[in-house]
From TrEMBL:
<dbReference type="InterPro" id="IPR042099">
    <property type="entry name" value="ANL_N_sf"/>
</dbReference>
<keyword id="KW-0436">Ligase</keyword>
<dbReference type="InterPro" id="IPR045851">
    <property type="entry name" value="AMP-bd_C_sf"/>
</dbReference>
<dbReference type="Pfam" id="PF00501">
    <property type="entry name" value="AMP-binding"/>
</dbReference>
<dbReference type="InterPro" id="IPR025110">
    <property type="entry name" value="AMP-bd_C"/>
</dbReference>
<protein>
    <recommendedName>
        <fullName>acetate--CoA ligase</fullName>
        <ecNumber>6.2.1.1</ecNumber>
    </recommendedName>
</protein>
<feature type="domain" description="AMP-binding enzyme C-terminal">
    <location>
        <begin position="479"/>
        <end position="557"/>
    </location>
</feature>
<dbReference type="Pfam" id="PF13193">
    <property type="entry name" value="AMP-binding_C"/>
</dbReference>
<dbReference type="InterPro" id="IPR020845">
    <property type="entry name" value="AMP-binding_CS"/>
</dbReference>
<keyword id="KW-0547">Nucleotide-binding</keyword>
<dbReference type="InterPro" id="IPR000873">
    <property type="entry name" value="AMP-dep_synth/lig_dom"/>
</dbReference>
<keyword id="KW-0067">ATP-binding</keyword>
<feature type="domain" description="AMP-dependent synthetase/ligase">
    <location>
        <begin position="66"/>
        <end position="419"/>
    </location>
</feature>
<keyword id="KW-0007">Acetylation</keyword>
Amino acid sequence: MQYNAVNGVYITRHVVINDGNLVGANIVSILSSSMLTLPINWTELIMNYNIASCCTKAQCQRGLSKKNAMRWIDPHGTRTDYTFGDLEMQSNKFANVLTDLGIVAGDVFFTFLPKMPEQFFAFLGTLKTQAVCGTLFYNFGEDALLDRLGDSGAVGIVTRKSLYKKVARIRDQLPALKYIILVDGEDDPLNGVISYVRIMAEAAFEFEVQPTAPGTPSVLHYTSGSTGKPKGVLHRHGSLTSQVATAQGVLGLKEDDIYWCTADQGWVTGTSYGIIGPWSLGVTQVHYGGGYDAQTWMNLIAQEKITVWYSAPTALRMLMREEESIFTSANLSCLRDIYSVGEPLNPEVISWSRRVLKHDIFDTWFQTETGAIMISNRPGLEIRPGSMGKPFEGIEPAILADDGTPLPEGEQGNLCLKAGWPSMFVTYLNNESAYKSKIKDGWYYTGDTARKDSDGYYWFMGRSDDVINTAGHLISPFEVESALLEVEEVAESGVIGAPDDLLFEKIVAFIQLHERYQPTKDIEIKIRLHVSNKASSIATPQELIFCDSIPKNKSGKIMRRVLKARYMGTDAGDTSTLEI
Ligand code: ATP
Ligand code: MG
């Protein structure tokens, strides 16, 4: 990668980035916050931001090389520990592997693996070389892979045999993809397939990380595709400042914590808070390779003595459907705090958690584009169930009308952020115009709508294109869904607006009942009455449609546009991230 100091422009093989001076002001405001006592020498960091070095080498230099960095629990429950020294060595080796293959700064390299140790080593190793590391959710099908590998011009990928089949089928459409490293496979030189075990055994374990300026591209994530075609969101090494500051200032991580983040590394939460934030603070993480199972999860928290747990509303709503005895019989006294991200956290989930888990849940809001938590609840801040909390230090949100005018307190509008926080994305890969269209007069338009109350709490209303305009009122699908969830018989719901001659849009609710219930007229009446009392009569769905499941995307978010297409009988657009 070349850096032109005069213009502040980085040139990579695939992307040209204007470094600008996005970092300066916000570093000062974030770091000067009195609550932060970071264990890393930040002056040094600003000189050399390399994310991976901060997660591994810096920790070893602080004397933590023998401290456990990761307790890996495989899907069968077998436990293996990796120290910070192991992370440093394995990631150095991987960096040497890529360098020996000829992969250079600015190249795009992907991991396509389920949660497993090799994924973490590869991620950190790739960042050490200053190549860009993209992470692909292991559940992706061929179309989703082709989109992402093709769009990014990826030169290599680390995967495993069972997933390689999908890549092999699209390989001839990916001319740039030269190297495939298989964690459990043999060398196959004819097909450019390399054995991870062999090549890692041969690699040296010293790797000198080049000084990495904050603007150097780092991580590439494609968004969840909730609202349309997923976008390739490019981040840079300077994002570390926000990630580590929020891991400490919001998640409250301390060196003696045992922390579990359930997010897959394919999504931004999985890298920002499943790798970068906690390890830069020298915190031990538990990573579990198995899927959702309430009993196993509770056992895991108790046995591993998890102190801080970061999960998502979908998972928490699934727990709510389980027998309460699972939770009352578990010893969760080790838990200090629970956090949630990814979707609005329905107030009912918080009440359930208070009653059954005997804990609050702190809702946090961010996006792939923001790279780190921007608005959140956190210890020391009174929780207002349904509100996503207050902005983090150095983050300046605003509620703006479509024409950019600030809206008064209490009014719903575009949730915007003053551009320039350290983990702000650099661009949408190959879609600079979409990036530019999101930034007006120094404000980044998040695409979400919200309102701010008189005490400075922000309340999520919906996606800008998701708000229902009925009988002259703007209704958030989330508000209706939250009210629906309070009805005992309702397990999940998805609410959409559909065209209506009289109301402009009518409210249509798709409802999944708990397994033990069948739809009846009585349940219908009960639901309507409840929403009318709880939300408002205007928010009461005109139509209730009972179904077996609510479509979600692979990161667990309700896909309202799929429901709408189903209702309207139209094409649902890009469904590559739809969970089947
Ligand atoms: P796409 O941009 O492709 O439509 P996406 O927006 O779902 O997908 P992500 O970047 O993973 O992709 O998700 C960020 C979005 O998730 C936010 O813009 C917001 O709509 C929603 N979200 C995240 N956290 C919260 C939260 N705490 N409360 C409400 N909504 C949230
Ligand atoms: Mg989005």
